[in-house]
């Protein structure tokens, strides 16, 4: 028998992710998670008051794994246009790896996301704030002319939805997708660089 | 009894759309369409060689109803920025009306579209060509600085996917969607107006 270990939120979330992977979002229950950990479901509920709360926490953890490397780029140094491109390349590559390597888990998280608009909204706000930060740096560096970096950050995220929003995942294997991104990139970079007449 | 009328492709397509509406895309058959018209299924097959061909023609007709009013704007006269905005407002309003007024039929057409990438590809190319035409006019009018109107047309369509691509239909009732579109519009308009340094 395994040594008894302390039941941390992190251990519960790991087990919950594993249970979602095995049973799928329609069937996975808190009892399954408790069983996988060898504890009572009451012990799980002491950390997460409901199945919905547990699922939201699993989703949040997954989304944090997407945004953490992006935060490093957003909060880093260097020319803003390079960081902006690196930020998008990193986001797009991460999404693509997730959908190609583990399409079932990608679908599971898309289901969780559809049920947790608030968690997704927070994630989107985090990403938009990263972009606003880079745009503001670009303005300070004299390479971008945006008057409202926050609005520009949100606009950049919206204008590139086709390349990172899960609803478009089926299009990412299209051989023209990289050229399409370059076209949008060119257009929005010109927009950022230009003070409007 | 109704007077016998000539069986035209147009009559078959109308009946097919009606049958899809009543039975849904999973159940509707060519036999249902023939029955609705009071003809043999052989008569239908003389115009459309397969169920897939009939469905593609129904989809094409539906997409043509979306693109026809847009073609009028694209091929019209007047300042390019105004026409560009009118083109997008018209597209976005048409999609929104379709999804709000008849969500089941919208879902049916989304299913047909997923099965007919070629028809959808042709439609997207038509829309991109409209945009290229308006951008080229804007360059001739001295208001846009785009070097490659065709690439800009495609980029404009991609950059606005969130506001007209059916995969985002659930987001169109979000109260912030109009502001979000304005943000992307501002950014891409600056991009079109600016010759890159």
UniProtKB/TrEMBL annotation, chains A, B:
Residues 6-66 form the HTH tetR-type domain. Keywords: DNA-binding, Transcription, Transcription regulation. One of its GO terms (molecular function) is transcription cis-regulatory region binding. Signal peptide: none annotated. Residues 29-48 bind DNA. PROSITE patterns: HTH_TETR_1 (PS01081), HTH_TETR_2 (PS50977). PANTHER family: HTH-TYPE TRANSCRIPTIONAL REGULATOR RUTR, TRANSCRIPTIONAL REGULATORY PROTEIN. This is TetR/AcrR family transcriptional regulator. It comes from Azospirillum doebereinerae.
């Amino acid at each position: 028998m395994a040594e008894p270990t302390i039941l941390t939120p992190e251990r519960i979330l790991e087990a919950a992710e594993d249970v979602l992977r095995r049973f799928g979002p329609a069937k996975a229950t808190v009892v399954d998670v408790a069983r996988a950990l060898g504890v009572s479901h009451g012990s799980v509920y002491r950390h997460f008051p409901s199945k919905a709360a547990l699922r939201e926490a699993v989703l949040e953890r997954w989304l944090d794994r997407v945004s953490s490397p992006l935060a490093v780029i957003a909060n880093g140094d260097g020319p803003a246009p390079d960081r902006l491109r690196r930020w998008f390349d990193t986001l797009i590559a991460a999404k693509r790896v997730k959908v190609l390597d583990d399409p079932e888990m990608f679908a599971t998280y898309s289901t969780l996301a559809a049920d947790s608009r608030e968690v997704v909204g927070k994630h989107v706000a985090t990403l938009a704030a990263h972009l606003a930060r880079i745009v503001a740096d670009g303005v300070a560096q004299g390479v971008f002319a945006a008057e409202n970096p926050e609005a520009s950050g949100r606009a950049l995220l919206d204008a590139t939805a086709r390349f990172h929003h899960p609803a478009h995942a089926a299009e990412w294997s299209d051989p023209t997708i990289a050229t399409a991104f370059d076209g949008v990139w060119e257009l929005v970079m010109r927009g950022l660089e230009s003070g409007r007449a």
